């Protein structure tokens, strides 16, 4: 974050009971195809934005959240009222995933696809496709074809 002007974004669940303030620059913007994300969301692919944990603040509805930990790696958090998913905290990575579609005025510029080896749908967009994750995020860094 060194010195650059910090942008902020507001994220909210569908009913508005929960609101987040997200500041700065995400370290990852892209699609996750892993089976856990797909099962949690009930969607064929997940649009993820990963931020340093300290950049994500719950400004409203902290006591209106429900957290589901299918594994300790991902603390998947949703609104109790509308059931809307809003974030997944990854303590081991020190990163928090804010679901891209909960953020107003966030420019969606994906960098890559991760866990493409588990994909349900193919997306031929020319972006790098990792079988699991880049080495920087603890994966093997292996890229696969679209
Ligand atoms: Zn809600
Ligand atoms: Zn995933």
Keywords:
binds zinc ion, 5% helix, seven-stranded mixed sheet, single chain, Metal Binding Protein, Guanine Nucleotide Exchange Factor, Chain A, 146 residues, three-stranded antiparallel sheet, mainly beta, 10 strands, 1 helix
Strand and helix map with partners:
Blueprint: E1 8-12, E2 19-23, E3 28-32, H1 35-41, E4 46-52, E5 56-60, E6 65-71, E7 74-79, E8 85-90, E9 95-99, E10 112-114
Parallel strand pairs: 3-10
Antiparallel strand pairs: 1-2, 2-5, 3-4, 4-9, 6-7, 7-8, 8-9
The site of one zinc ion (ZN) has 6 residues, from helix 1.
The rough form would be described as globular
| Bound small molecules, deduplicated | zinc ion
The number of helical segments is 1
CATH architecture: Beta Complex
Would you tell me the overall average pLDDT?
A: 95
Give a quick account of the main beta sheet: strands, pairing sense, barrel closure.
7 strands, mixed
Query: Roughly how much helix do the residues carry, as a percent range?
Result: under 10%
| CATH-defined fold name | Metal Binding Protein, Guanine Nucleotide Exchange Factor, Chain A
Kindly provide the radius of gyration, computed on alpha-carbon positions and rounded to a whole number of angstroms. 15 Å
The helix-strand sequence is: EEEHEEEEEEE
Unreliable spans? none
The tally of beta strands, per DSSP, is: 10
Give the C-level CATH assignment.
Answer: Mainly Beta
Give, in spatial order, the strands making up the sheet with the most strands.
Answer: 6-7-8-9-4-3-10
Number of domains as seen in the coordinates: 1
Structural class: mainly beta
Q: What fraction strand?
A: 35-45%
**End-to-end CA span:** 33 Å
